[in-house]
Amino acid sequence: MMDLKTLIRTACKQGASDLHLEPGLPAAMRVRGSLQVGSEALAPGPLLGLAREVIGEEHWPQFLERRSFDLSRTIAGVRCRINVLQSSRGVGMAIRLLASFQATLDRLNLHPELNMRVPECEILLSSHPIKAHIRSREFFKIASVIETGADSGMWTFHRYQNWLEKQKDWYMPEEHSEDAPDSDPPPIEGGLEELIKKLGEKPGS
Fold this sequence. Notes:
Elements: H1 4-13, E1 18-21, E2 26-31, E3 34-41, H2 44-55, H3 60-66, E4 68-75, E5 78-87, E6 90-98, E7 110-111, E8 116-117, H4 128-135, H5 142-147, H6 157-166, H7 191-200
Antiparallel strand pairs: 1-2, 1-6, 2-3, 4-5, 5-6, 7-8
C-alpha cells in the first residue's frame, strides 16, 4: 500500500527539495538540483486515494472543478507545500519539502565576529516561463524554472548558500568615519518653508 508519510520521510533523508508523484511513472526526487527516479511505477488508484485524503472531502469538489489544488501541511514531521494536479496520466502531486527551522546561530546566519546577520533567500523573477506556468496553473513547475534560471537572475536556496560560503569580502562601514560631522547641524530658522526658499534661490541672487 502506498504511504505518503514513508515517501516524504525517505525524500527528507535523501536531502530532497521536491518530490514528484505521477501515475504510471516512478516517484522522482530532486536532490541538489538533480532528479533521482525510483524503480517502480506508481499505480493510479492508490495515488488518487492519497490525493483525495490530502485535500479532504470538503475541498475535493474544488479540485474536480479546477483540476489543481494547492495547500500546506506538515507530514511525517516535514513542512510541505503540495500541489495536487490533473495531468493526462491522472491525478498526481508535486511536493516541495520545506526544511524544519530551528533558531540556531548557524541557521540564522549570524556572524558574531562581524556583528552582522546575513539573510537567506530564494529569488523568483517574473520571466516568460514563470508567467506561462502561473496562467496554466502549473505551479509545480516553478521550482524547476528557479533552478535553471541563474542566467535570468534567479537564485535557489542552495545556490545562494554556496555563494555565502565563498563570500569573504564583506563591506563593513566604520562606526566613526572621519568625514562624519561631530554634531547635528543647527536647525534652520523658519522651518521647512524657509529651507525650500533657500534651495530655490539662484546663485548670486
